[in-house]
Amino acid sequence: MALSLPGESRPEVDNTRGRRSAGTAATAPAPTPVPGAAPGRGVPDAPQAADGAGPAIRSLGELRSLMAAHVAAPRFAAASWGVKVVSLATGATLFEHQAGKLLKPASNAKVYTGALALDRFGPDHRLRTSIFARCRPGARGVLDGDLIVFGRGDPSLAARFHGGNSARSLDPLVDAIAATGIRRVEGGLVGDESYFRGLPFGTGWAWDDLQYDFGAEVSALSVDDNTVELCLSPGNRPGEPCRLEISPSAACLQCVNRITTADAGTQSNRWIRIRRPPGGSVVELTGQLPLGDSNCLESVSVPRPARWFLARLAEALAARGIRVMGAQRVVDEPEAPSLGGVAAPRVELGWAESRPMAELVERMMKASQNLYAQLLLLQAGVEFAADGAGAGVDAGGGGRAWTTEEAGLAALREFAGRAGVPPGQMLLEEGAGLSHGSAVTAHATVTLLRFMSRHREASHFLQSLPLAGVDRALRRRFAGTAAAGRVRAKSGSLHHVSALAGYVMADPERPLAFAIMLNHYQPPAGFPPAAAEVDHLVCLLARFDNGR
Description:
Layout: H1 60-71, E1 80-87, E2 93-97, H2 109-121, E3 128-133, E4 142-143, E5 147-150, H3 171-179, E6 184-185, E7 189-192, E8 227-233, E9 243-247, E10 254-262, E11 271-275, E12 282-290, E13 296-301, H4 305-319, E14 323-324, E15 328-331, H5 336-340, E16 347-353, H6 357-366, H7 370-386, H8 404-419, E17 426-427, E18 439-440, H9 442-453, H10 458-464, H11 472-478, E19 487-494, E20 497-504, E21 512-519, H12 530-543
Parallel strand pairs: 4-6, 5-7, 6-14, 7-15, 10-12
Antiparallel strand pairs: 1-2, 1-21, 3-5, 3-16, 8-9, 8-13, 11-12, 17-18, 19-20, 20-21
């Protein structure tokens, strides 16, 4: 099956920030090899010019020579490359370098998670958030007892799915509750987040990532990506405190603002430090903004997001004229049987459905959204543990029940096996790529990409990948290069890690699949960042006239 690029792509915001983000940051243009340079033979490893569009590469021998020279440059002596390029038309390997070496994929892990979600659920599947009670409301809309919201990890209860308006994030659920006829709840508002078993973050997520938006806690009841945005602006004169606005409002966070207004001047007068200890609710802000500086936006994750979910839902219900008389309460996995396990009577009064799975995967990929990726892995885990293939018991023995993440990873291994990925070449610890303990080979990723190019959901998988030069994650990286509009790929970035994997569509009849990972690399002075070194190889592929 020949892949083809869709005519349009919806740009999406990359949600990642910070030095350890699993997404990508804008980088300098990719370099071009010094003509005639022979790495290792005394030729200086000098900074190189921007790639630009570049001339066509007319032969496979020339392509291999240029790619080999680049990865063998002296500046990469202490680093690790993993590269593989395959023709989808013929299955032939065009280039490989350490393709069987296990390396950190960073957000390239989302390629696996997105493919798993499309394979297991299909593009039209929707996640349900159910509304339960122990009885139906009376004729006047009065509900005796608690109103119970049972979450299943719908990530689309978020502003990014509602035109950026956080006031509408919970509209689908509020609409569903209003449709039941409830106007007054005599009991409390209960949030049941017991659908997932295990810790509220992925295995291997670093503690100092958890305060940022890209390290937000995972919950079956999530709203607005489980983060708030801090808008900071300077005061009227030097020395005054800076103004702080929090959106959406979050009573569960206490912000201690020690950011002051500095003299107008250079960027050296502008710095901000954020600190929220893991599990804590106090956010300490220090730093300064220059007088007259534009607003500064920062994002902070919310602790125990299910509690914030209920607080937001109670406000939205009140605005709709639905009164809840009792207190708010969150129920997680250990408490679930007392609330509404299998034996407890419950009536499902209604439900709200998520956006289709194809849209969830696309939003996850193009925004490199870690929370969404982990939620999708957990969705697969719930189903896998419930069906015949996943008995729900740890394969290591001892009878310990799986966490939902473990079940999701088991589902991923089963899927990868069907895709032809060799055992031991995909060692993922979670679904987002934020863990430094995950490792894959370039060969494994290309094998998956080849499988998905022939998959029944090939078009949805291709559409989910950012388009070079168009979608924000790759817009600046490939602007003005041969790859712009010709490459769909998922990027990945961690500290000293850069990766890119996807498809080159320069010739739609002869598409290429590629995986490139660069680990343990710190650019020497005067050289471009690691992502630019990776991009250079992709630009070479885009310039290759593989029809000859």
